[in-house]
């Protein structure tokens, strides 16, 4: 069963919760906008369903609600941002602003972030660049759930990569993908339904391929993109995300990335501070006049969209499904499953905020 | 059957061929070094086996042996390089030098290239940055052989992405991957052996999955990374490579990318000039002191390499197999299949160069 709440209703509630844990008005608004971007775009696993998780991390003293986010190291086109243990939902947008400002100055800007927490969906951060006629790039490392090719140990997160590219008359191109075959949220759905998962999504504790939706829970691991026949590519991409996000910034990497769930303790011997992100902004007109670029981008998009397709299907442009979902949910509201509603009521009761 | 030739022997021969088509001494050396990097690293499909292909393109008037490669547009951290129709084997390294010089100045450098040709293996170009304590990135678009998810048309190339990261005591990290499940070269091997190909590599002309090694030849297409269950991710990555390499520079993109084989004509209505590449260089010390970065990179590498693994296997670091192969082939020589030897003899005879 699901209850549908309007975006504005959910926004007010979530904002009030972030204020209750001590966020400034400005940060609470920013965190809410970032978090609910996931719900709007249909990536329900990364949206308000995680609000209770963020609150529990704060209760465990692992989120600083009043971080002093700042640049600690820089060149004209690069910076390292220290998130001061803040919400990734707040640290992320502030770091992306630094990348955009650098791009304004010298054509591109590249920011690696340490001492942060989970930042919602990568696509939201990459899309920030679009308003400035820039391409946006966003990555983050995440709790270790993924086994590199041949590994029995979980050493990487689902480590997403997002790339946003502005177009002219056509809607923007927005790629936002985990570097695993399937996101953990899809396993959770299969667990609830008790249905087997496809080959290539996960492995058992002994490294054999699994169709058991509980495989990861039982000591197995998610598989990198490419699954059974080519997981070395997904492993390589996930590794690049980890290195750019954390080895470059001084955050924790690999198995040391702090878990999102508050009941698991972070490593007692961390190799860095918090978790890491990586952001990029490239001005389109640092390469060619923006109008020229956009005309060709429109041509690229319409060529792909209008390609001959398999019966009953059509070729999508990355970002199409999420944009359509966003338009729909802004009007019709956001459906929330009963367990999510229950979690939100629990959080609301804690702070005297009514859902 | 195979004949083994020493690297230096093959180098002299290849260099003489490039001089014979009109390359300057300097460009012939550069082109040879770039091309043979593929043979050394064990990526036989992209090495000297393609020399005859480059010569045929030159005969068809589609390669300029004396290009004036230059920057046509720039900001402090970006440039567009015009390859003037030259060999990608020459244009690529020159464009990467521009990226490295920009990185020296402002921390990072990003170069999009138009009017070029095939550039060999992406990994070679990315690795150029390592000597300067920089991370290197290289991408290229390529002849359309790949169908986006649901498409019956081939709109993308195998569009590789390479990322090279320097380490300290450990060998460098070098990811070099096509954004398809399998490279076309693997299909060619299966064709010769007349063995079926795994699910997820290719589709038939009607869009159904195929295990026929001749599927692509017969109007089918290669599948993006992710194959049967997640090709939208590989499609998205291949699309980003196409956009960064060509829409950004003014090269041909999508179905307009000129074919490598001389018997197929380029589009009569191109949307840009030649094919496109994209290069990046990021100074490690634009983010943190290089020694610090390298110490953590060594820790990253040893952690992954020493992870508990599936019986009889171990976890590899991207670049391990190619580096080992390179060491071996420098000493033992490069094995070449009989059809390749025959092609080289044909090319040699044309110019009076003895193999």
UniProtKB/TrEMBL annotation, chains A, B:
<dbReference type="InterPro" id="IPR043144">
    <property type="entry name" value="Mal/L-sulf/L-lact_DH-like_ah"/>
</dbReference>
<dbReference type="Pfam" id="PF02615">
    <property type="entry name" value="Ldh_2"/>
</dbReference>
<protein>
    <submittedName>
        <fullName>Ldh family oxidoreductase</fullName>
    </submittedName>
</protein>
<dbReference type="InterPro" id="IPR036111">
    <property type="entry name" value="Mal/L-sulfo/L-lacto_DH-like_sf"/>
</dbReference>
<keyword id="KW-0560">Oxidoreductase</keyword>
<dbReference type="InterPro" id="IPR003767">
    <property type="entry name" value="Malate/L-lactate_DH-like"/>
</dbReference>
<dbReference type="GO" id="GO:0016491">
    <property type="term" value="F:oxidoreductase activity"/>
</dbReference>
<dbReference type="InterPro" id="IPR043143">
    <property type="entry name" value="Mal/L-sulf/L-lact_DH-like_NADP"/>
</dbReference>
<comment type="similarity">
    <text>Belongs to the LDH2/MDH2 oxidoreductase family.</text>
</comment>
């Amino acid at each position: 069963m699901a209850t549908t709440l309007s975006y504005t209703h959910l926004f007010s509630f979530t904002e009030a919760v972030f204020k209750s844990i001590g966020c400034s008005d400005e940060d609470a608004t920013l965190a809410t906008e970032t978090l609910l971007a996931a719900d709007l775009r249909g990536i329900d696993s990364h949206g308000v369903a995680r609000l209770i998780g963020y609150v529990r991390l704060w209760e465990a003293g692992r989120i600083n609600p009043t971080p002093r986010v700042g640049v600690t190291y820089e060149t004209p086109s690069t910076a390292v941002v220290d998130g001061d243990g803040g919400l990734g939902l707040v640290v992320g947008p502030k770091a992306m602003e630094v990348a955009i400002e650098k791009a304004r100055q010298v054509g591109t800007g590249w920011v690696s972030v340490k001492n942060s927490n989970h930042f919602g969906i990568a696509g939201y951060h990459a899309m920030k660049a679009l308003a400035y006629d820039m391409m946006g790039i966003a990555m983050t490392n995440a709790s270790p759930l993924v086994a590199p090719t041949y590994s029995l140990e979980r050493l990487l997160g689902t480590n997403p990569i997002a790339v946003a590219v502005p177009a002219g008359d056509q809607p923007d191109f927005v790629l936002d993908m985990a570097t695993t075959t399937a996101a953990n949220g899809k396993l959770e759905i299969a667990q609830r339904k008790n249905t087997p998962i496809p080959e290539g999504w996960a492995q058992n504790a002994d490294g054999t391929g699994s169709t058991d939706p509980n495989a990861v829970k039982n000591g197995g691991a998610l598989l990198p993109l490419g699954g059974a026949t080519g997981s070395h590519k997904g492993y390589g991409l996930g590794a690049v995300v980890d290195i750019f996000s954390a080895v470059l910034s001084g955050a924790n990497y690999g198995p040391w990335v702090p878990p999102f769930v508050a009941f698991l303790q972070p490593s007692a011997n961390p190799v860095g501070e918090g978790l890491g992100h990586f952001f990029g902004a490239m001005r389109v007109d640092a390469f060619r006049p923006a109008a020229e670029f956009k005309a060709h981008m429109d041509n690229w998009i319409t060529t792909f969209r209008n390609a001959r397709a398999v019966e009953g299907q059509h070729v999508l442009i990355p970002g199409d499904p999420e944009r359509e979902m966003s338009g729909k949910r802004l009007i019709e509201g956001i459906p929330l499953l009963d367990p999510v509603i229950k979690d939100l009521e629990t959080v609301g009761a804690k702070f005297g905020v009514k859902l």
